[in-house]
Amino acid sequence: MNKKIAVIKGDGIGPEIVNEAEKVLNKVGEKYGHTFEYTDVLMGGCAIDATGVPLPQETIDICLASDSVLLGAVGGPKWDTLPGNLRPEAGLLGIRGAMKLFANIRPAKLIPALAGACPLKDEITKNGLDLVIVRELIGGAYFGERDTHVDENGVKHASDSMAYADYEVERICRVAFDMARKRGKKVHSVDKANVLDSSRLWREVAHKVAEEYPDVEFQDILVDNTAMQLVHNPAQFDVMVTENLFGDILSDEASMITGSLGMIPSASLGEGSLGLYEPIHGSAPDIAGQNKANPLATILSVAMMLRYSFDMSKEADSIEDAVDKVLADGYRTGDIMSEGMKCVSCSEMGDLVADRI
Ligand code: NAD
Questions:
Q1: What is the pLDDT of residues 82-118, one digit of tens each?
Q2: pLDDT of residue 79
Q3: In sequence order, what are the residues at sequence separation of 6 or more whose Cβ sits closer than 8 angstroms to the Cβ of residue 350?
Q4: Residue of 283, 286, 301 to mutate, ligand 1, most atoms within 8 A of C-beta
Q5: Residues annotated as part of the active site
Q6: Positive/negative CA dihedral, 308, 310, 313, 316
Q7: What's the 306 CA to ligand 1 centre distance in angstroms?
Q8: Taking the mean position of all CA atoms in its chain, how far away is CA 266?
Q9: Per the domain annotation, does 267 fall within a domain?
Q10: Mutate to test the pocket of ligand 1, among 13, 18, 81, 261 (most ligand atoms within 8 A of CB)
């Protein structure tokens, strides 16, 4: 197969980590007979420097005409004082909107070789941790009506409304159920239906969608209980689906349980197969250009791209297995280094993974 990938290397460590992900993808292409064609496009600080805006129209056009988009990271101190709409992060929100990416998929998996980095007690993680959070990305409180005003008594008020339409809940629930079918066949729908109207609608729609997936075990769970259960018995979860704000918080909690920022990939998906794949960490300006960054989150992001955009499961498995092997063989970048392990650079880590494909 021939696939066109728009590549946003971005700022800071972005170019270094993306180069390693391309190295691994090329090896997958060689082994399984695929061609991956990359088109570099600008976004973030580098786009501001070159064009004056964080997200040039040309970038949007090329991303929309591609089969998938790979993103490193954007931002850095050089652009921190610019007004909000001209900052690198505005590019990030802009591209998600332009590509109509309503589902954010974030896996949290405890890699056995890195179990020591997990802050939970062994007795809690002894059954493992391998879950995926499916977060609604373009609705809820982050996109609802908002208001800040001072009333006639001089009291200042601010409000954000958490609004959802039934079709928005339905489409994200379908993403979760389809994903569960390819994994452990279990979905938890997270809400606050004991208090919020938007959650009661969420629950009603989630139940309707669940009826279409009798092969998938389904359960509602309140968000406060979910936060507790994640640190009490994380092995009970397979796929968790939730609205934007709850998902933002729960996905950070779940990431923390796995131990390291440099290890966690993510995917943002819309209606079709076009997706945006990126590590969850930022541009790490403190180590940029030093060949020290951990490229594994970006490498695992291209594994997600193969699985979700290109329907290439065995190719995706080959990357995930290669990463597991490199770690089991004792290789670590600085951020995940521990006693007795072998410390390697960003490019060496890419080579080690590519060698094991
Ligand atoms: P960060 O994730 O860039 O860095 C936090 C810490 O983790 C730093 O010490 C960094 O060196 C380390 N780190 C992060 N990724 C690493 C990796 N792959 N390997 C080794 N160490 C790694 O977060 P920050 O410092 O808060 O933000 C830096 C810049 O990144 C800011 O401009 C921020 O706005 C931007 N940012 C971008 C994205 C994105 O592009 N999606 C996400 C978050 C932050």
A1: 987 889 988 988 998 899 999 999 999 888 788 777 8
A2: 96
A3: 19, 20, 21, 23, 24, 295, 299
A4: 283
A5: 142, 192, 224, 248, 252
A6: negative
A7: 25
A8: 2
A9: no
A10: 261
Instruction: Please report the pLDDT score of residue 258 as a whole number.
Output: 82
User: Ligand 1 center to residue 256 CA distance, Å?
Assistant: 15
Specify the pLDDT at position 259.
72
Residues 251 and 219 grouped into a single domain:
yes
Helices 313-328 and 346-355, axial angle in degrees (round to 10): 120
pLDDT for the residue numbered 271: 86
Domain count along the chain: 2
Kindly state whether residues 84 and 151 are assigned to the same domain. Answer: no
Position of tokens 């072998």?
Answer: 342
Ligand 1 centroid to residue 229 C-alpha, Å: 28
Residue (of 351, 255, 265) closest to 300 by Cα position: 265
Given 229, 257, 285, the domain boundary residue is 257
List pocket residues of ligand 1, CB cut-off 6 Å: 13, 17, 73-76, 89, 92, 261-262, 278, 281-287, 293-294, 297, 335
For residue 67, what are the domain limits? 1-101+272-357
35 closest CA partner among 69, 3, 70: 3
The atom of ligand 1 lying closest to the CA of 334 is 20
* Residue 272: pLDDT band with limits 50, 70, 90: confident
Q: Whose CA is nearest to atom 5 of ligand 1?
A: 284
Q: Which atom of ligand 1 is nearest the CA belonging to 346? A: 19
Q: Is residue 334 exposed (0-12), middle (13-18) or buried (19+ Cβ within 10 Å)?
A: middle
Q: φ, ψ for residue 79 (rounded to 5)?
A: -110, 10
**Residue 222, strand partner residues:** 191
- Atom from ligand 1 closest to the CA of residue 287: 11
Q: Residue 63 maps to which CATH number?
A: 3.40.718.10
Is residue 123 located within the same domain as residue 237? yes
Q: Which atom of ligand 1 is nearest to the CA of 44?
A: 40
Domain boundary among 226, 257, 288: 257
Q: Do 250 and 277 fall into the same domain?
A: no
User: What is the 138 CA–ligand 1 centroid distance (Å)?
Assistant: 23
